[in-house]
């Protein structure tokens, strides 16, 4: 069926062929490639989503259908060449055109919230805070959709003890690739539930998610400390994330970190914290010569309530900091409301937008690196391939594998502790070779080749592969299950074809 024929199928009222809608759905945050759908659906309900997918599934010729959340993918994962993109989120805030919005519904006693699959996390936060509650596990940036992050994992500095966002979902409502609208959870349709979580949009479209909540803290003490020695840095990070296993012990609520190679125009995503309230220059710290010219910053937070006396929080934080071996005098501390901390990257977005360096190509590379090889990765990549020059922030933080559910579709390294390394780069017109798209894409390939040749078994997070054999290698021993689930829930390969995992069967 040609998607234009959908006009006659009862989803017509919100099906758009407008060039502005088609244009928006053709691109994403990565800005690395364009692929035009025939039409864009602005769904008014889960039933609209189901009707469209059913039409694609039942028609003799079929056509691809991709859910698009906030379009913050890098490599066209939410695109649907010649098909229909379902615009689940709407950047203008009018989510459903003329439809009735499904607003987040908080159940205070049961501590969960039901949200539309296209809802942005910022909205989930605002709605739940009204009840003194908040989700437990986050992403660093909140202008991402619930369906989009749950299709990957959703990680940030809370993942070491709460697990990724996909470990904090009670129930989903999903439209499968056959157009069935199903509720699934641990108890009900559990195969579909686990398939969809981290499932790269391959098995169904999430129309509603039930997310676990906790009492929201009011304030956050946010601390950064510096290291010049990589092994000391990672030892401290690993110590901090091991505390989750000691019930009753004091621990930080968030553990992340980043690598400081240089301070280019987009590194201000992270380094702004050192100024202006903490105007200390890194090189004025009298620190030992940085290891290979590279510094490492540990970023931690402690949550507390407004009623907690400041000497109590000082005492708790200091007793934890005492166990760490950072460069003396390199601690930078600030206190801020919980919401402001969680929404911190949005401030950086506004700053980068004002400089015209937000809507640019983003050849990002996100890798999960096993703990046993992280030192080799440091030597080979941070102190090797990057050659003392970096473009954009480089995040590095460890997580505990036991907080990830093996039944989900996501792939992680086979070690108890593994690291996220995120090279968040932007191609800019600075005249410097290091800022060009070609250079950065080449460097990404070089990093992957280095890992391969050094036998460092990394797994891409937000993976991008273009050939099925690469996907088979990515999934490893999970491929058989992934394939079976695809055959069961989306046998015509209609959904999320932009991931390039399965060839559409039409
Ligand atoms: P889209 O790009 O719209 O879609 C992504 C994939 O999910 C597509 O395949 C799409 O078809 C599918 N999909 C979308 N909605 C649904 C749905 N309702 N049901 C089923 N499938 C669906 N990730 C982290 O984990 N932690 C971070 O801290 C983090 N920070 C980020 C910061 C920025 C500035 C950016 C650009 C990205 C960041 N990400 C982070 C990555 C982000 O989580 C993923 O790119 C995510 O997919 C983006 O959500 P989206 O709504 O924009 O998804």
Describe the structure.
There is one protein chain. 27% of the residues lie in helices and 20% in strands. By secondary structure, it is of the alpha+beta class. The strands form three sheets. An eight-stranded antiparallel beta sheet has the order 14-11-13-12-16-17-15-18. Strands 5, 6, 7, 8, 9 and 10 form a six-stranded antiparallel beta sheet that branches. Strands 1-2-4-3 form a four-stranded mixed beta sheet, with helices on both faces. The chain is globular, with a radius of gyration of 23 Å. Bound molecules: flavin-adenine dinucleotide. Flavin-adenine dinucleotide (FAD) is lined by residues 28-29, 66-73, 77-78, 88, 117-118, 139-141, 144-145, 147-149, 151-156, 200-201, 205-206, 462, 496, 498-499.
Bound molecules: flavin-adenine dinucleotide
Give a count of the beta strands, DSSP E runs of length 2 or more: 18
Beta-strand percentage? 15-25%
Unreliable spans are 265-269, 275-280
First CA to last CA: what distance?
10 Å
Cα shape: globular
Strand order of the largest sheet: 14-11-13-12-16-17-15-18
In round numbers, the mean pLDDT is: 91
In terms of structural class, how would the helical and strand content be classed? Answer: alpha+beta
Query: How many helix segments?
Result: 15
For the sheet with most strands, the description reads: 8 strands, antiparallel
Helix content: 25-40%
Gyration radius, in Å: 23 Å
